[in-house]
Amino acid sequence: MLIRLCSPTLAGLKTGNLFTVDIDDREKFNTEVREFNCRLSGKGIRMIPVKYSESHVLIYLYRPAFLKRDLANEEACRILKEKGYSYRNADLCVAELARHLAKDNSFPHEIGLFLGYPVADVLGFMKSPEEGVKYTGFWKVYGDKDSALRTFDKYKKCTEIYSRAHRNGTSLEQLTVVS
User: Fold this and answer.
1) End-to-end alpha-carbon separation of the chain, Å?
2) Burial class (CB in 10 A: 0-12, 13-18, 19+), 106
3) Where are the alpha helices (DSSP H) in the chain?
4) N or C, which end of the chain has less CB nearby within 10 Å?
5) 87 pLDDT higher than 80
């Protein structure tokens, strides 16, 4: 599942991904997350459960160094500040995102900043999720469509290559690049 959903992040092309996992035993799952982080933290990857429900959990898999870089953008800082985040500290922002997700039934619109989406597209979505959309791929594009299409193509090719390599026996650790 990680290969299918998170290859661009594992490859160092993308800041992060969100995905949902079904769980039976929360403590056992938390142990698995800690083990994953021990195995891959040296490669610049972190996995954090950001929202639990009765039978599943929303996971944020990301590259902390990339998130720090992305959140240093002046416009991203402004958005996060307006939404009440400690925008100067990426780790605190992740914890605050988890709190926002726990309080709200809907996704906070600023979540795209945590996934590496262009700020112009996050702003476009925040303004109106339906108006001004130029293209829908890995995210809704409101800004530079050509750049987004190139990025979507890279993500798709990366996922195909990683999926093939994994089917042929390459481990998750081997597929995860150091950043």
Assistant:
1) 22
2) exposed
3) 2-10, 26-40, 64-71, 74-82, 90-103, 112-115, 119-127, 145-167, 172-175
4) N
5) no
- If one counts every other C-beta atom within 10 angstroms of the C-beta of residue 83, the result is 17
Q: What is the pLDDT of residues 24-51, one digit of tens each?
A: 999 999 999 999 999 999 999 999 999 9
Cα-to-chain-centroid distance, residue 154: 16
Which bin fits 116, alpha (ψ -120 to 50), beta or left (φ > 0)? Answer: left
Please, what is the Cα angle at 45 between 39 and 47, to 5 degrees?
Answer: 85
Quote the CA–CA distance of 156 and 142 in Å, as a whole number.
20
The residue type at 161:
I
Cα–Cα distance for residue pair 50/108, rounded to 1 Å = 13
pLDDT category of residue 105 using cuts at 50, 70 and 90: confident
Q: Which residues in 151-176 are b (16+ Cβ under 10 Å) and which e?
A: bbeebeebbeebeeebeeeeebeebb
Burial of 145 per CB tally in 10 Å (0-12, 13-18, 19+): middle
